[in-house]
Amino acid sequence: MQYSIFNLIREGINKHKGWPAAFRHPEPKERYDVIIIGGGGHGLATAYYLAKEHGIRNVAVVEKGWLGGGNTGRNTTVVRSNYLWDQSAFLYEKSLKLWEGLTQDLNYNLMFSQRGVLNLCHNLHDLRELHRRINAIRLNDIDSEYLTRDQVKAFVPILNMDPNIRYPILGGSLQRRGGNARHDAVAWGFARAADRLGVDILQNCEVMAILRDGAKVTGIETTRGTIRAPKIGAVVAGHASVVAGMAGIRLPIESHPLQALVSEPIKPILHTVIMSGAVHVYVSQSDKGELVMGAGIDTFNSYAQRGSLQVIEDQMAAVVELFPMFSRLRMMRQWAGIVDVCPDASPIVSKTPVEGFYVNCGWGTGGFKATPGSGWVFAHTIAQDRPHRLNEAFNIERFSTGELIDEHGAAAVAH
Amino acid sequence: MTDQRFRNAAGGRIDRSRPLTFQFNGRRYDGFGGDTLASALLANGVRLVGRSFKYHRPRGIVAAGSEESNALVQLGTGARTEPNVRATQAEMHDELSAASVNCWPSVEVDVGAINSALAAFLPAGFYYKTFMWPPRAWRFYEWFIRRAAGLGRAPTEPDPDRYEKTYAHCDVAVVGAGPAGLAAALAAGRVGARVILADESSEFGGSLLGEAATIAAAPALDWVAGAMAELAALPEVRLLPRTTVFGYYDHNHLGLIERVTDHLGPRTDTTLPRQRLWKVLARQVVLATGAIERPLVFDDNDRPGVMLASAARTYANRWAVRAGDRAIVVTNNDSAYPAALDLSEAGVNVQAVIDARETPPDAWREPLRVRGIDLAAGRTVAAALGRKRVEGAEVYELAADGSRLIGAARCYDCDLIAVSGGWSPTLHLFSQSGGRPRFDAGIAAFVPGESRQAERSVGAARGTFSLAGCLAEGFAGGAAAALACGFGDGVAPPVPATGDTPAGPLRPLWRVPTAGHGGKAFVDAQNDVTADDVELAAREGYRSVEHLKRYTTTGMGTDQGKTSNVNALAILADLTNATIAEVGTTTFRPPYTPVTYGALAGRSVGDRFDPVRMTGLHQWHEAAGALFEDVGQWKRPWYYPRRGETLHQAVARECGAVRASLGIVDASTLGKIDIQGPDALKLLNLVYTNAWDNLEVGRCRYGLMLKEDGMVFDDGVTARLGPNHYHMTTTTGGAARVMGWLEEWVQCEWLDMRVHFTSTTTHWTVVAIAGPNARRLLAELCPDIDLESAAFPFMAWRDGTVAGIPARVFRVSFSGEQSYEINVPSSCGVALWQVLMTAGAKYDITPYGTETMHVLRAEKGFVIVGQETDGTTTPQDLGMDWIVSKKKTDFIGKRGLTRADCGRADRKQLVGLLPENSKDTLQEGAQIVAEIRPKPPMPMEGHVTSSYWSAALGRPFALALLMGGRARHGQTVAVSSYGTTSWAKVVPPIFWDKEGERLRG
Amino acid sequence: MHLIACPWCGPRDEVEYAYGGEGHIARPARPEALSDGAYADYLFMRRNPKGVHAERWVHAAGCRRWFNVLRDTVSHRILAVYKMGEPRPEAGP
Amino acid sequence: MVEPYLRQSPLDHLSLDARAVGDPGGAGVVAGERRFIAKVSLRGDPADPAFAAGAKTALGFAPPVAPNTVDGKRDRYALWLGPDEWLVVGAPDTQDKTVAALRAALAGCHAAVTDVSEGRTIIRLTGAHARDVIAKGCPIDLHPRAFGPGRCAQSRYARALVILHQLDEAPTFDLHVDRSFADYLWRVIEDASLEYGFAVVAEPVMAALKRRRTPQGQD
Ligand SMILES: Cc1cc2nc3c(=O)[nH]c(=O)nc-3n(C[C@H](O)[C@H](O)[C@H](O)COP(=O)(O)OP(=O)(O)OC[C@H]3O[C@@H](n4cnc5c(N)ncnc54)[C@H](O)[C@@H]3O)c2cc1C
Ligand SMILES: NC(=O)c1ccc[n+]([C@@H]2O[C@H](COP(=O)([O-])OP(=O)(O)OC[C@H]3O[C@@H](n4cnc5c(N)ncnc54)[C@H](O)[C@@H]3O)[C@@H](O)[C@H]2O)c1
Ligand SMILES: Cc1cc2nc3c(=O)[nH]c(=O)nc-3n(C[C@H](O)[C@H](O)[C@H](O)COP(=O)(O)O)c2cc1C
Ligand SMILES: [Zn+2]
């Protein structure tokens, strides 16, 4: 059933008894054309675009827990495309363009809200880098504006603009087309749309081994049995090393906890996304009213989905520095995800030396924004067995050649 | 003024000698010391306290502690206002003021309640299905949704209060000071263990504060008082009332939040913090966190006046407040019986106990009869009547399998429905510690499973609900925990006798069948999640408990579902034909109750947010009117404007002074590392790209450090002080990084390398004088060093005295002029500086800041790591191939430089730029574009890294990284910034004194 | 919030330490002899195990010594602490 | 050196002397700056007999090998900072003598002797609540069962690195801190002491206060 106001009213009268399942809970088939490992946003998007753009519908998405339960379901939902290097800018901008029509495409309200993303700048060095970045972004035909101190103040009057604070705000860069989307809706929307095109979403199905015939993949061993396919795409974020390892592939990835937290819900007070790499925090307010915020990763490797309190303490000090009035608000819940960090802070969306095995990982602290774009190029890579122009540069070989795409600046603060 | 009509004349633990007045929604009321806002409101007959999140349904008080889901208020006003405070935890103080949240214009008449009428169209997740049209209209809809959402309001002024944090260590941390926790603390404290006992309530005693129980044949609270006195006398026991243990982190770290002065109300004396965050490292933890009573899920169970039975009982016993006049008590277990009796004792007209069980234990019949309370077995309440408060209840017989109501309703006329759906042990901290809860069908609740950290649960937190059991487990747990830390013999102290009535089994009752008149049966009242929502989620495929939570938002409110989660998942289990154990719980996460940001920030606010590092000359710079630049944590003078000068004018003046005569700059922040050892030379050869073998004592050399990938990492001058002794300098920002880097290599990789590093960054104050008159000035003050170039050439150093101060003088230059860097013991920095200023007056000695320093070095084409480099830049890119030794077989980064990408001809290389328009200073960060198009996209081939107006050249100039730049000298390129294009000629990146005569002369 | 036992100073709070990533990665004796791929292995490729991880930490705010740690990346339990240069012990339970 | 009055200690700008009291009265925390104390970093392998002997000759005592302990004499003592690292602390302006003596005695072994006096200062804290104040910023357990006179430790106080040295059971602590962080540390500590009462004392009073108590450890 189509989601629409009319059906909502009709079902309201009908006590909502008529809504079908958004996605099925099928039993695994023996064989698929493509298996996507990982039922996060990227995996589901890949499956969706495989079916929609490439007509490959005999696809399974295999998820070890509940779909969307990885980083997709625990991220701070910042969407933007203001990246420095051309390769990144094009890929993230493709994604942003997809976001702009995604709610309608999926017929699921993703609450994609282009409320703007404002990066604050607190010292002269950062200011120089900011201009470099804004100019590069604009020349790639992506929106980005420089805001002077006064403009920052006018845009977000509740920011602490006192010039005598420890790290006074000197200016900022604003991408108005950036914003937030509802994280869970993204997973569910892609799942529903993919399901409607015939994709099987297999939850509680953990991949334990990847089956190979020589240098070719043939299928997977899962907690729900053996499933065969000639092509397998791994999109497992924090577990990238583990799953790639099953195919005998080493990755330049390290898994770290990235923590986030929400305040209690309050009436609207912050209408945009504020990020500051220098004091290290970023914050937005969700439609439900919580302030959603995060900072940087915990430095140690971890698969535990939890981090250390001192990271939160520093983050709170930073947010109170920017917004002294938030001091009396309260943290309602804190959590963490496991992010897959690449040495150059850019993702890997690539074929591998193992035939039929593709990896999509390394999105680290910032891949939510890329969800549709990542799925789009990865579907292309799998379907055509060659990368799309947009993800060509994001191959594994770059770590050997040295042709890295260093986006540490863009990722200075996790987002 | 009101009469506290629901307050009994005697009893309770309030301080009747301390009458207080407070305001709620603008009206004044009376209360007493020891009240909470909730108990005082109830005493005054206020039942309607707030409006719900989504439907704006009228809501009252359901609980007596931190599990309260409904009674959230905006506490206080002005800068001290605080949203979403649970009325049950807001301690009464004089002139307390509070208001309902989420209603307009008032809690009685709330416009938002229109949502209630539209409720049929606003089920769980409705927003995912609509507001999609027209495309891009979402932000329009969102505007309204955002305004409707949220509960209270953030303050709009900075917080006037102070917060702080402290670390603490103990052998045994006991969480919860009910009977179990007190017993544990006693057992551990008596044998000498360091104990921290924390309870979130203002008073210790836990459930005993709300029960009329007996211990050792006396009121249980006498035992509590005795225990408190004993604990207070133990020197190693720390008692923390009003302190919530909010998080259980790795390695037995606990996060505690203590409300130090909140209960005193706004004060002017701020020597004490408002709240204090405790970070406790405990060797052993005893969790005595008790259990939380579950409500029952029946139609309109959210009406003000539906209350947990234990809460109603607590209001009666602890605060002498009757939560209603006419009550019925509805239960599926024994615990509501003593509640009914206590309510009756307190003067509430308890009409009946409605027990879902067919055969309640006989022990209760007689006491009920004595009090004239009916007992209706096999029955339950299926609907509450009334709107803004309970006006009655419909009670039905329940089918044996619980699936249907049987027969006709019996209506009770009541204003209080006290409910008990059983008890859930408070497992939050246990779960946070990594433990997995286990479902215990006997009590129909999750209980702690195996421990993952050094922790044990005791008492109700472990599913033990008898007082005797709680005491016994507490004593045993405390003794065992102490023993595990090496105290005592592990033998539990004897357990005093209690007056427990043995409890019978409970009858699980998760969803009372609907009475069928369209009421809503709430699972999570705070987030307005109904049983129908749970059903809808399951039908739509959101069958994992985590999906259920997120789709319906159950358990996602400020109470985190303390009272609702188990009901929700049990209903889901029923719908999906799974067992409750299979469905499992959602993940418990900190904090147990919300924690103030200010407390987490602690003292790191305002001017203590982050250390300001200052050189010994900082006060001089300040007095001289310098503006400062942040470089890492350092404050460095940026420029010294004279009256009315702009940055541009000041910098032109400062530059001019250096080039023409003499400038002086504070260079103290440069990193300095003292390196000693027979392998020091070997080390330098490994960490720098150039060769160091032929550096003589008395000389210094510039070096470049790379990371293993060949990218420039840091640079600086290193001097040879002795055969095995060097003085290394680093960039200001890189000092700690380089020191760590050297230590890491030597400690982890080159274990037998004999070399030691000592940071001497701040030991020295470094003052550089630069300009044609530098030597002349120095000569006046430095009698013991021969300054003639032959004796003291460029890139040499000498020890001597300057102005009588022992000094080490380096003849190095970052400005391109004759220059000396004078290093003196830091404490003498000001003295040196002042002498130089005085003696240099005749040369018009001019202090200059970082901006001038940058201009001067750029004129010379000297790079700044971090400005001309960005982690993707090799020495070759910088045109510094000359510094990369071809002879050395190895140095860090050598192999990285030979990777395929590093050899590309089109890499970005350092060039100079001369703008064609000589008035046009390029924007730093401007991009060099391959072709100018009417509008973007335009391909980029480099960017401007540094750009200044040069007083010396009389024109602007810049440094840039440009693709294949070195082969493009002489070309003109287009430089684009914010839509304007400038043209510039590509030149070699050196503009001043190309032969270097000035700095050598 | 890890509590890590420095081999010299004993158990200290995580805030005193800095993490150094995977341990036992030896610098190639002759880097120039390696292919780009093999060099990339050394530079970038990491085991990143889910479970016991041999890693190094430095007691940065303490005695400034580097040392090795075996730590479980799921439970965060520390199974062993040993000095630089010592071989990796068998991972305990 | 220059005229003493021209020298600036890292906390001079706070004019502590002007705030100093002769008798701290009931203040729970009493603090002062110990100015110009000599501090020499000594590095070497205590297992090397030549080093051990040389160090002992130069100092008059063997630098402690037990981690986080202090040994020595009243006017010159060594803090263990690492398995091959000590901080030799001595009376004001004795650093040159110490450096010279150590260098002479250690010539020929692999050792490093570096004057670091000017890079750090010492904040002395004493009073009934000295321990509580330190706990507010420092994760180390200072309970008498875990720490005590003659013990030292490097750690953090809030966002500054410090070396803690407990001198007596009063308790009295010396907090060594980099001079560029001294202003921050002082202000944080003063704020943390508010609730206990805070008094500033000058060096002679500091010494007198310490003498009143049974001398333990070093001064
Ligand atoms: C706290 C936090 C904040 C963030 N904030 C932002 C932000 O603001 N903006 C932004 O753009 N990005 C952000 N990110 C990053 C972003 O969340 C991720 O990059 C993105 O969601 C990754 O999506 P994914 O689908 O690749 O991974 P996931 O959603 O993690 O999906 C991977 C799935 O693979 C499954 N899986 C793993 N192993 C197996 C196996 N063996 N078998 C089967 N299934 C398996 C996992 O269970 C998981 O569901 C944040 C991340 C975190 C943790
Ligand atoms: N009859 C029944 O079914 C039933 C059920 C439950 C409890 N009880 C009675 O309740 C009592 C239980 O004793 P107990 O000692 O186990 O529990 P308790 O409820 O008496 O005490 C628990 C204490 O822990 C505190 N607490 C909980 N979480 C906390 C946290 N995170 N931080 C700080 N404090 C926290 C609470 O404020 C409370 O004071 C017994 O008397 C028992 O008979 C009876
Ligand atoms: C953008 C966003 C908003 C959230 N808002 C809430 C919230 O209002 N209430 C809540 O309890 N949790 C909220 N959460 C956190 C989730 O409850 C949960 O902690 C998170 O998805 C991680 O899952 P886990 O805690 O089950 O591991 C939010 C999470 C995200 C990503
Ligand atoms: Zn140590």
Low-confidence stretches of chain C: none
Total DSSP E strands of chain C = 6
Order of helices and strands of chain C: EEEHEEE
Helix amount of chain C: under 10%
Element order, helices and strands of chain A? HEHEEHEHEHEEHEEEEEHEEEEHEEEHH
Radius of gyration of chain C: 14 Å
Largest beta-sheet details of chain A: 8 strands, mixed
Number of strands of chain A: 19
CATH class of chain C: Alpha Beta
| DSSP strand content of chain C | 35-45%
Distance between the termini of chain C: 21 Å
Q: Give the overall form of chain A.
A: globular
Structural features, described:
The complex is a heterotetramer of chains A (415), B (1001), C (93) and D (219). Chain B is α+β, with helices and mostly antiparallel strands and 1001 residues long. Chain B contains 23 helices and 50 strands. In chain B, strands 8, 9, 12, 13, 14, 15 and 28 form a seven-stranded mixed beta sheet that branches. Helices cover 9% and strands 35% of the residues of chain C. Chain C has one helix and six strands, in the order βββαβββ. In chain C, strand 5 and strand 6 form a beta hairpin. Chain C starts with a strand and ends in a 10-residue tail after the last strand. In chain D, the strands form two sheets. In chain D, strands 8-9-10-7-1-11 form a six-stranded mixed beta sheet, sandwiched between helices. In chain D, strands 3-4-5-2-6 form a five-stranded antiparallel beta sheet, with helices on one face. Chain D is built from six helices and eleven strands. In chain D, strand 4 (76-82) and strand 5 form a beta hairpin. The chains are: A alpha/beta (415), B alpha+beta (1001), C mainly beta (93), D alpha+beta (219). Chain B binds chain C through residues 167, 249-253, 279, 281, 434, 452, 708-709, 740, 743-744, 747-749, 751, 889-890, 894-896, 898-900, and chain C through 1-3, 13, 18, 20, 26-28, 31-32, 34, 36, 39, 42-43, 56, 58, 60, 64-66, 75-76, 84-85. The complex binds flavin-adenine dinucleotide, nicotinamide-adenine-dinucleotide, flavin mononucleotide and zinc ion (ZN). Flavin-adenine dinucleotide (FAD) binds next to helix 2, strand 13 and strand 17 of chain A.
Task: Set down the secondary structure blueprint.
The complex is a heterotetramer of chains A (about 425), B (about 1000), C (about 90) and D (about 220).
Chain B: E1 15-24, E2 27-33, H1 37-43, E3 50-51, E4 58-59, E5 72-75, E6 82-86, E7 96-100, H2 114-117, H3 138-148, E8 163-175, H4 179-190, E9 195-198, E10 214-215, E11 218-219, H5 220-233, E12 237-240, E13 243-249, E14 253-259, E15 275-287, E16 291-293, E17 306-308, H6 309-319, E18 326-331, H7 336-345, E19 349-355, H8 365-371, E20 374-377, E21 379-385, E22 392-398, E23 405-412, E24 416-420, E25 423-425, H9 428-432, E26 437-440, E27 445-448, E28 455-457, H10 467-484, E29 522-524, E30 529-530, H11 531-539, H12 545-552, H13 565-575, H14 580-583, E31 595-596, H15 597-601, H16 618-623, E32 627-631, E33 634-639, H17 647-660, E34 663-666, E35 671-676, H18 680-687, E36 700-706, E37 712-722, E38 725-730, H19 735-749, E39 756-759, E40 764-770, H20 774-781, E41 796-802, E42 805-811, E43 819-825, H21 829-839, E44 846-847, H22 850-859, E45 908-915, E46 927-929, E47 940-950, E48 955-963, E49 972-977, E50 980-987, H23 997-1000
Parallel strand pairs in B: 1-7, 8-9, 8-15, 9-12, 15-28, 17-24, 18-19, 18-24, 19-20, 34-44
Antiparallel strand pairs in B: 1-2, 3-4, 5-6, 5-7, 10-11, 13-14, 14-15, 16-25, 21-22, 22-23, 26-27, 29-30, 32-33, 34-40, 35-38, 35-39, 36-37, 37-38, 40-43, 41-42, 42-43, 45-48, 45-50, 46-47, 46-49, 47-48, 49-50
Helix pairs in contact in B: 4-5, 4-10, 6-7, 11-12, 11-13, 17-22
Chain C: E1 3-6, E2 10-13, E3 18-22, H1 36-43, E4 52-58, E5 66-72, E6 78-83
Antiparallel strand pairs in C: 1-2, 3-4, 4-5, 5-6
Chain D: H1 16-19, E1 29-34, E2 38-44, H2 49-59, E3 70-72, E4 76-82, E5 85-90, H3 95-106, E6 111-115, E7 120-126, H4 130-135, E8 152-157, E9 160-168, E10 172-178, H5 179-193, E11 198-200, H6 203-212
Parallel strand pairs in D: 1-11
Antiparallel strand pairs in D: 1-7, 2-5, 2-6, 3-4, 4-5, 7-10, 8-9, 9-10
Helix pairs in contact in D: 2-3
The complex binds flavin-adenine dinucleotide, nicotinamide-adenine-dinucleotide, flavin mononucleotide (FMN) and zinc ion.
Flavin mononucleotide sits at the interface of chains A and B.
